[in-house]
């Protein structure tokens, strides 16, 4: 364990940001967090990604102060706010939170909802806002694009509008850290895409340190400067999205953050020899391995006429999925198994077509061969 001074050392990335170190939480006799560690630099956004029940929301509650630690510690802005024998309450942490259901007060107007998020000394004691409070509320609503809705009631707003109001309320006290729990899950697909793009631009402009929970990989990759993937109460890997996708720590993670297949091979240093030819490896290995193949890294060419191609790299198109911008093929390999191939544009091959597969040459990772 590091002491409070060491936690704030320059270069650790949490001197003005967030650090969670060896956090453990048990609820109902079950371990929910197990030696969990994450960091977020000041002004950056960290996405917590993982399947349901993996501990994401519990970790968010630990950061907010709504959940006590059994062991470990939390550092916010260079201050230890949770540790053995220490638990700083939520209202002392400088943290704003947007809940999954937004939790707006149905009996208060939009402006009054946002005013409730102001520091206690600035909150109006009646339904009439003081001029400073009124200006602050107007500025916040203007910032999130709903200033014209100030006098409306939450029940009359669309889901996207309610989400913006909840964000404005969370930003009202000018928090050092903003926490969002599945903030877009209640929106339909098209609205979710547009709102998350707007929120991403806003967070970048405000330079607020942000942690948000999601089970949606696309959402995590779009919004997160870094993504921490959780499984069974443990952070499996935290990295920028591109590195997470290109260099997953294990097989499970490879499949969780994208479509992933493997092909067997023999590694000799930074080359693995496979049925698709030699494949460059990002990390040198030796012996029998399973090489990670992303669909966009598998190249498909026309096979021998009449289906006569029978090499290890031969296959037959079994299923085709067209998405408009690209096509995903499922190819039955001549030696058994299925590989997926993603190609841009409209389908070039139909079901039953004989094809030959090769690798694009993009360096990838490999895992020790399963026994």
Could you explain the architecture of this structure?
The structure is a single chain. The chain is an alpha+beta fold and 371 residues long. It is 22% helix and 36% strand. It has 9 helices and 19 strands. Strand 5 and strand 6 (86-87) form a beta hairpin. Helix 3 crosses helix 4, helix 3 runs parallel beside helix 5 (159-171) and helix 4 (131-143) packs across helix 5 (159-171). The longest helix has 18 residues, at 189-206.
Gyration radius (Cα, Å) is 25 Å
Give the spatial strand order of the biggest sheet: 7-8-9-3-10-11
Broad shape = globular
- Give helix % range: 10-25%
Average pLDDT over all residues: 88
Helical segment tally? 9
Q: What series of H and E elements makes up the topology?
A: HEEEHEEEEHHHEHEHEEHHEEEEEEEE
Question: Low-confidence runs (pLDDT<50, min 5 residues)?
Answer: 1-14
Strand content: 35-45%
Instruction: Give the structural class.
Output: alpha+beta
Tell me the number of strands: 19
Ends apart, CA distance between termini = 37 Å
Largest sheet: 6 strands, mixed
In short:
The chain is of the alpha+beta class. Helix content is 22%, strand content 36%.
SSE diagram, text form:
Layout: H1 4-7, E1 18-27, E2 30-40, E3 45-49, H2 56-64, E4 71-76, E5 79-83, E6 86-87, E7 95-98, H3 110-116, H4 131-143, H5 159-171, E8 177-181, H6 189-206, E9 209-214, H7 217-223, E10 226-231, E11 234-239, H8 241-246, H9 251-256, E12 261-274, E13 277-293, E14 298-302, E15 314-322, E16 326-333, E17 338-344, E18 354-359, E19 366-368
Parallel strand pairs: 3-9, 3-10, 7-8, 8-9
Antiparallel strand pairs: 1-2, 1-4, 4-5, 5-6, 10-11, 12-13, 13-19, 14-18, 15-16, 15-18, 16-17
Helix pairs in contact: 3-4, 3-5, 4-5
